[in-house]
Design goal:
It is found in: Nucleus, Nucleolus. The protein is α/β, with parallel strands linked by helices. Helices cover about 25% and strands about 15% of the residues. The protein contains 6 helices and 9 strands; from the N terminus they run αααβαβββαβββαββ. The strands form 2 sheets. The protein has a 7-stranded mixed sheet with strand order 3-2-1-4-5-9-8, sandwiched between helices. Strands 6-7 form a two-stranded antiparallel ribbon.
Amino acid sequence: MKSMDSNDFFETVSKRPDLLPQYLDAAKEEGMAGPGNAVCVRTADFIEKHIPLSKRAPMVDLGCGDAALAAELALRGWAKVTSVDAARLAPRVVVQNLGSLPDDWTDRYEVAVLCRALWSLDYLKVLEEAHRVLRKEPEARLVVVEPFRRWWGRGQDGGELENQLLSALERAGFHLLLEESENFRMPVAAVADVGKSATKSLFQFLLASPVPGEDKAPESQSWG
C-alpha cells in the first residue's frame, strides 16, 4: 500500500475493505494501534501541552485508523474531534480520501492531526489538504507525528542527513513552530544507523501553523 498515491489507495480500499483491518491488526501487534496505545497517548500528551486552544476547538484527525486518538482525547475533555480515514474501522469515522477532502471543509478546523498518516507517494498533497481545511488564524495548528526512519535522507546537494519532513511542511504552506516541536533532530546515537530497526520506535512530534509566525526557521536552516 505504501507504493500508492492517495487516490489509488482510496479506490483500492473501497474495493477491498479487508485491507485496512489487516494493517490495523499488524499495527496493534507493534503497540501502535488499539485503545490507549503508546503513540496515541504520547500524541494526546503533546496536544494537551502545546495546543493553545479551548478543548471545544474543532479538530480533525486525518488518517485516524481505529480512532484511538479521538477516544483518548475524549477522556481528557476534547469535545469536537472528527476522525477521518479511507475506511470505517471504528464507529463515527468519516470515510474520505486524505488527498481530496470535501470542498466545503475549507477553513473548517482549528486543529488538524496527521499521526503516522503520511506514507502515500503524494504525501505533499495530503499536507496541502490539511493546510486547506485549517482556519487561517494564528492560533490554528497542525500536529504531525511521524517515525524518523521515514524522513531522514541526504540533502539535495548530497550533504548531511536532513529531516525532509520539515521542508515538506514548508512546501505545503506551513510555518514551523520548532520551539514547541519535539524530537525533530536525529539522535546522535542513531545517525550512523538510520535505516535499521534502532530507529523504528522513534517518533518526531511537529507543530506548525497555517499562517506566518515568529518561530519560522530560515529557509537556509539545516535540520540534520
